[in-house]
C-alpha cells in the first residue's frame, strides 16, 4: 500500500487499472483543489451484496467513502463538519442505532468493544473525540429551547476547537449518561505525535479550546448547574482550566530561581517546623503519582519523563492557549483548527525509538523552553558560586536550591540539544543564542 501511494504521488496520476476498480473516485479528476470541491460519495463495499466477503469468506459490512463539499467562501467546520456530514449520510444508508467515532489515525483492536460495560464514578467520562460509541439519538435528537420554541439540534456542535468535549458536555446536560469501558485488551489503538513540537502544538489547541468552553455560556459551573452532578462540573473544570495553570507553573520555574541570585528566601528554613507542610506535600504527591503510574503499567523512568513533559506543556502549550484566548476576547485573532502531524520519516522515528527529543525547527515554544533552561542553569551555578565564596548557610535557601536543581535536571534534554548533540534535530543555534540573551537579561535585572 505504501509503495502504491508513493508511486502515484511521484507520477502525479492514478493508474488506469486502479481507476477502473474505483470508478466513483473519478470525480476527483475534476477537482481544482482539495479545499474547493463538490461532495464525493462512493459506496466501496455494499453490505447487502452476498459476494462482499473477506479472504476467509466472512461477510463484510457496508463501507462508504465520503468527501464533504468544501468551498473557500464557507467555513467547513473541520472535524465537526466532517462528522456531521457522515451522520447525515449514514442515516440514509444504514441508520444504525449506534455510531462509532474513530479518528483516521486510530483503529479497532478489540471487536468486543461494542459490548459496553464500564465505570462511572463522577457522572460519566467526557467525550474526547475518538474511540467512542454514541447512540444515534444523542447526536440526532437533542432538543433545546430558543425563546418559546423547541428546536431540534443535530450532530457535533460548532464554534470551538474542542468540539468533542463541547458536544459531549451538552449531551450529558441533556440527561444522557456516559460510561468508561477499559477492557484488558485495548479497544482502540492509534498513533500519537512523536516529536516534542507536535505534542506541544496539539496540547496548545486542546488548552485553547477547553478554556474557550469555560469562558463561554457553556461553562460547566453555569450551564451544568442542576443538569449534571457538582462533582462532574468540577471534573470538567480540571480540564477546562488547563491553560490558566500556566501562570502558577511559570511562577515556580522562574521567580524562586531568580530570587536565589539576590539571596531572597521564599520558603521556610528546612530546620523550621513550617517547612514540614511543604516537604510532606511534595513527597506525598510525588510518591502517589509515581506509584499510580507504575501500577498502571508504566516505569519510574516513564513517570519522570511524564513529569518533564508536564513542565514543558504548562510553560508553553498552556501559556499560548491562554494568550490566544485573551487575543480572541479582545478581537485581535480568531480561533483556528491546527491539524497535528502524526506521520514521521525514518530519521525522526529512529530518534524517537532512541528516546531523543526532536528539536530542529525554530519555534516560539522552544524559545521559551531554552530561556527557562538557561535561567535555571545560571541561577543554580550562581547560587553555588555565592555559597562557595561567602560561605552562606544553606538552611535558608535549601528548598529553593532543591527546586532549582530539579528544574535543571528536568531540562537535561534541552541542554543536550543545545550543547552536545550534532544531529539535525539538535536545538537550532539561533534559538540557543536568542534565549541566552533573554536569560542573561532576566538574571541581570534580578541582581540589580
Helical content, roughly? 40-55%
General form: globular
Care to count the β-strands? 8
| Parts with pLDDT < 50 across at least 5 consecutive residues | none
Q: Give the rounded overall mean pLDDT.
A: 86
CA radius of gyration: 26 Å
Sequence of secondary-structure elements: HHEEHEEEHEEHEHHHHHHHHHHHH
Terminal-residue CA separation: 64 Å
Describe this structure in words.
The chain is mostly helical and 448 residues long. The protein is built from 17 helices and eight strands. A two-stranded antiparallel ribbon has the order 1-2. Strands 3-5 form a two-stranded antiparallel sheet. The longest helix is centred in the C-terminal third of the chain and has 27 residues. The protein is globular. The N and C termini lie far apart (64 Å). The model has no long low-confidence stretch (mean pLDDT 86).
Amino acid at each position: 500500500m505504501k509503495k502504491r501511494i508513493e508511486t502515484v504521488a511521484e507520477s502525479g496520476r492514478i493508474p488506469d487499472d486502479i481507476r477502473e476498480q474505483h470508478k466513483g473516485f473519478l470525480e476527483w479528476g475534476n477537482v481544482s483543489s482539495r479545499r474547493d470541491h463538490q461532495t464525493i460519495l462512493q459506496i466501496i463495499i455494499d453490505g447487502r451484496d452476498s459476494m462482499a466477503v473477506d479472504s476467509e469468506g466472512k461477510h463484510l459490512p457496508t463501507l462508504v467513502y465520503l468527501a464533504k463539499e468544501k468551498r473557500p467562501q464557507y467555513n467547513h467546520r473541520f472535524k465537526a463538519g466532517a462528522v456531521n456530514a457522515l451522520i447525515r449520510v449514514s442515516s440514509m444508508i444504514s441508520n444504525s442505532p449506534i455510531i462509532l467515532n474513530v479518528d483516521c489515525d486510530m483503529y479497532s483492536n478489540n471487536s468486543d468493544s461494542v459490548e459496553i460495560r464500564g465505570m462511572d464514578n463522577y457522572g460519566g467520562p467526557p467525550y474526547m473525540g475518538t474511540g467512542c460509541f454514541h447512540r444515534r439519538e444523542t447526536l440526532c435528537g437533542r432538543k433545546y429551547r430558543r425563546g418559546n420554541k423547541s428546536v431540534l439540534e443535530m450532530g457535533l456542535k460548532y464554534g470551538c476547537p474542542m468540539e468533542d468535549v463541547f458536544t459531549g458536555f451538552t449531551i450529558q446536560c441533556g440527561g444522557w449518561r456516559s460510561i468508561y469501558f477499559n477492557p484488558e485488551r485495548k479497544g482502540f489503538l492509534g498513533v500519537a505525535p512523536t516529536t516534542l513540537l507536535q505534542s506541544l502544538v496539539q496540547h496548545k489547541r486542546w488548552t485553547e479550546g477547553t478554556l474557550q468552553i469555560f469562558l463561554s455560556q457553556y461553562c460547566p459551573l453555569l450551564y451544568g448547574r442542576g443538569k449534571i452532578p457538582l462533582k462532574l462540573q468540577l471534573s470538567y473544570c480540571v480540564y477546562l482550566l488547563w491553560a490558566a495553570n500556566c501562570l502558577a507553573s511559570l511562577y515556580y520555574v522562574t521567580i524562586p530561581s531568580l530570587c536565589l541570585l539576590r539571596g531572597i528566601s521564599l520558603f521556610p528554613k528546612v530546620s523550621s517546623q513550617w517547612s514540614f507542610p511543604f516537604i510532606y506535600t511534595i513527597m506525598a504527591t510525588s510518591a502517589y503519582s509515581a506509584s499510580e503510574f507504575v501500577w498502571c503499567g508504566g516505569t519510574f523512568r516513564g513517570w519522570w519523563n511524564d513529569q518533564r513533559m508536564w513542565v514543558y506543556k504548562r510553560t508553553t502549550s498552556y501559556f499560548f492557549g491562554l494568550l490566544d484566548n485573551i487575543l480572541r476576547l479582545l478581537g485581535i485573532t480568531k480561533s483556528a483548527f491546527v491539524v497535528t502531524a502524526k506521520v514521521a520519516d525514518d530519521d525522526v522515528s529512529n530518534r524517537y525509538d532512541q528516546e531523543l527529543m526532536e528539536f530542529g525547527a525554530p519555534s516560539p515554544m522552544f524559545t521559551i523552553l531554552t530561556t527557562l533552561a538557561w535561567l535555571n542553569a545560571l541561577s543554580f551555578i550562581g547560587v553555588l558560586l555565592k555559597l562557595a565564596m561567602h560561605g552562606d548557610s544553606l538552611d535558608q535557601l535549601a528548598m529553593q536550591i532543591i527546586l532549582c536543581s530539579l528544574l535543571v535536571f528536568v531540562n537535561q534534554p534541552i541542554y543536550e540539544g543545545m550543547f552536545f548533540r550534532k544531529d539535525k534535530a539538535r536545538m537550532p543555534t539561533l534559538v540557543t543564542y536568542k534565549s541566552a540573551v533573554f536569560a542573561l537579561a532576566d538574571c541581570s535585572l534580578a541582581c540589580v
